[in-house]
Amino acid sequence: MPKTSSIDKRLWEKAGKAIGTLSGRRENKVKDIFTRRYLISPEDLFVEDYLRSKPVAAFNPGALERDGELLIFPRLVFDYRQYSSSVGVISMNIKKVIEGEVEKPLKTRIILWPKEPWEFSRGCEDPRVCLFNNSIYMLYTAAGKIGRQAFAELNSSFEVKRRGYFCIGKEKFAPSCKDSAFVKFSNGKAVMLTRPDFRSIAICWSAKADLKDLTIDEQTLKPVISHEKWEYKVGWSTNVVNLSENKYLVGWHAVLKEDDSYRNGLAVVDDNAELLGISNYLLSPQGLNESYGDRTLVIFGDGLVKYGKYLIWIGGVSDYAIGIFITEIDEALENIRWIK
Questions:
Q1: What's the average model confidence in pLDDT over 123-136?
Q2: pLDDT band per the 50, 70, 90 thresholds, residue 1
Q3: What is the mean pLDDT of residues 292-312?
Q4: Pairing relation of β-strands 177-186 and 189-198?
Q5: Hey, what long-range contacts does 98-105 have (CB within 8 A, 24 or more apart)?
Q6: pLDDT at position 301
Q7: Model confidence pTM above 0.90
Q8: Which residues, 6+ apart, have CB-to-CB distance to 81 below 8 Å?
């Protein structure tokens, strides 16, 4: 990768121009609609396949529903010297979860851990997962010298078939990039949501990517959501869930200047990742257990699941624990401000 890139300059300029036109769509208001809230601490886990059965932190989990199972993919940290992360998997009965029945300890397996130089030294962070054909597609942050947007394809038994990271254009430019989600797949291509940083401008983008060579077409990169004047930055928080034909729900987060807290909202996009609607903040830390941890005042992604009338947001809590936050889909949609 070149140390500097004309791509970086072009996209930095594109981001700067977009901020003015994309801001002003939200208000600095919080309405917590996720009224059912359950927490899973690191002590609630039992890691079956590693010498250390208890992580010191388990947070920022991806999630999906498969045949009545709620599969949770937590980021696991076992020591703070290097803060190196791996990704595990937990299986729970989704109906019991909705009713607040969480049987403990929760059996956990490690399925992805740092193996490549570009994943050293902080490892594999913040997975977003989805099902495609018979595979699990996982987007995660490879936290090497910079945070690269990594991709892993796993089979139904969670064995890794391939892994790599996305670059932009023929130059194979790989900026700091994270917080991505797939929207739609077609003929080896994907429409995706992503959050590259260009010279410290951190806003939400959409793009089209080739899944074979893991390249993003520079011409398709388009700013979608900007930070507001009271925020430092914004990013996508979750995978997408399908609402209806050509409508997808996705979580996003923002970091506030007033207290450095992470607050979360929802957006609706179409299958070209065009923004159709967006909410104000609908999920934020409450009370001691959600607000106090290794990084205080944080609820962060990464999993969104639709099951019957319910919307389940599986999030990291203050960089140490897992939160399960539940509302009804109708309640969520009532708080969307429609743009298109």
A1: 96
A2: very low
A3: 96
A4: antiparallel
A5: 98/36, 98/307, 98/310, 98/312, 98/326, 100/36, 100/38, 102/38, 102/40, 102/44, 102/324, 104/44, 105/44, 105/45, 105/46
A6: 83
A7: yes
A8: none
Residue 197 bridge partners (DSSP): 202
Amino acid at 287: G
Residue 328: CB partners within 8 Å, gap ≥ 6?
309, 310, 311
Q: Is the pLDDT of residue 13 over 80?
A: yes
The arithmetic mean of pLDDT across residues 166-171, rounded, is: 93
Q: Read off the pLDDT of residues 184-199 as tens digits, 9 standing for 90 and up.
A: 999 999 999 999 999 9
Separation between Cα atoms, residue 60 and residue 296, nearest integer Å: 14
Distance from the Cα of residue 137 to its chain's centroid: 13
Other beta carbons less than 10 A from residue 232's beta carbon: 12
Sequence-distant (≥ 6) Cβ neighbours of residue 129 within 8 angstroms: 62, 63, 64, 71, 73, 136, 137, 138, 139, 239, 303
Query: What is the predicted pLDDT for the residue at 340?
Result: 87
Distance CA 58, CA 320 (A): 5
Distance CA 270, CA 276 (A): 7
Tokens 């989990």 found at = 61
Asked if residue 137 lies in contact with residue 151, where contact means CB atoms within 8 angstroms, the answer is yes
Parallel, antiparallel or unpaired: strands 262-269 and 247-256 = antiparallel
If pLDDT is split at 50, 70 and 90, which confidence band does 4 have? low
At the fourth CATH level, which superfamily is domain 6-338?
Glycosyl hydrolase domain; family 43 (2.115.10.20)
Which 8-state DSSP code applies to residue 118? G
> What number is the average pLDDT over the span 48-62?
97
Any residues with CB less than 8 A from the CB of 134 and at least 6 apart, and which? 155, 156
Residue extents of the structural domains in the chain: 6-338
The DSSP 8-state label assigned to residue 48 in this structure reads T
| Contact between 34 and 287 (Cβ < 8 Å) | no
How far, in Å, CA of 147 to CA of 251, rounded?
21
